Amino acid sequence: MKKLKYFAVMAMAAIVMASCGGQNAKKAEIIEKLEAGEVPEEVTRAAVDVQASEVAWKGQKITGAGHHGTIGLKEGVIFVYDNQLWGGDMIIDMTKIVVEDLTDPEMNARLKGHLESDDFFSVATYPEARFQIIDFDPIAGAAEGQPNYRVSGNLTIKDITHSLAFDAIIAFGDGEIMSRAELSFDRSLYEVRFGSGRFFENLGDNLINDQINLTITLFASY
Q1: CA–CA separation, 80 and 216 (whole Å)
Q2: Number of other CB atoms surrounding residue 9 within 10 Å
Q3: Is the pLDDT assigned to residue 21 strictly greater than 70?
Q4: In whole angstroms, what is the distance from residue 119 CA to residue 115 CA?
Q5: pTM for the full predicted model
Q6: Spatial separation of the C-alpha atoms in residues 204 and 222, rounded to whole Å
Q7: Which end of the chain, N or C, is less surrounded by CB atoms within 10 Å?
Q8: Sign of torsion, CA 131 132 137 138?
Q9: Do 80 and 62 form a contact (C-beta atoms < 8 A)?
Q10: How far apart are CA 179 and CA 46, in angstroms?
Q11: Residue 2 above 50 pLDDT?
Q12: Do residues 155 and 129 make contact, with C-beta atoms less than 8 angstroms apart?
């Protein structure tokens, strides 16, 4: 009787392992296609509501003074397969940089123009940025209200691409997806040089942190 129970348990374990192995293989296949810029036919596209969604930014000097605002989201899609999140693609409209902390119209326009110039994001040459999501990895044991997914992908700014990973709170079901994430990226990796200690010495209080903070809130439906 004990042998029968043992074999039954082993058989069940084998089935579970085979199922997980098949799922992991499928995930690897889909991720490989996404990395190659292909969208597998079997995935469902969840369109991001660019009007309801928001990309907020914040930059600071070494002194703590800084500015904040938003950036336009041009379009976005999240890929869903087998009731799981598998990847996505976000196009950011760099021509829609908004400065929110300066109420004086002249100062606001001056900073906006500076951010759009070649000192920063060269918007006339590179009007779009892109974040290609390669994987959503669930965080085991995540508490309610805390990040429950590790998101990884490739961020492209000024035609320069680097990998980027961050934690996010994601809720989805009944054809809807809501995501919120707080993250940062190193602007110096994208040749955004102005006030950067990586490119210039002896900046003193004019030193601007290389890390730009983003708070991203997305709403999508499928």
Answers
A1: 19
A2: 10
A3: no
A4: 7
A5: 0.81
A6: 50
A7: N
A8: positive
A9: no
A10: 13
A11: no
A12: yes
| CA atoms of 35 and 135, how far apart (whole Å) | 10
For residue 4, what pLDDT band results from cuts at 50, 70 and 90? very low
> Mean pLDDT across the chain, nearest whole number?
86
Q: How would you write the chain as a 3-class SS string?
A: CHHHHHHHHHHHHHHHHHHHHHHHHHHHHHHHHHHCCCCCCCCEEEEECCCCCEEEEEEEECCCCEEEEEEEEEEEEEEEECCEEEEEEEEEEEEEEEECCCCCHHHHHHHHHHHHCCCCCCCCCCCEEEEEEEEEEECCCCCCCCCCEEEEEEEEECCEEEEEEEEEEEEEECCEEEEEEEEEEEHHHHCCCCCCCCCCCCCHHHCECCEEEEEEEEEEEC
Say if residues 207 and 61 touch (Cβ distance below 8 Å).
Answer: yes
Contact indicator for 198, 188 with CB cutoff of 8 Å: yes
Contact 84, 138 (CB under 8 A): no
Token digits for 190? Answer: 């994208």
List all residues 6 or more positions away from 52 whose beta carbon is below 8 Å from its beta carbon: 219
Task: Output 194 or 188, whichever has higher pLDDT.
Answer: 188
pLDDT of amino acid 61: 86
User: What are the φ/ψ torsions at residue 109 (nearest 5 degrees)?
Assistant: -65, -35
Structure tokens at 98: 């908004």
For the ranges 41-45, 74-78, 84-88, the one whose mean pLDDT is highest:
74-78
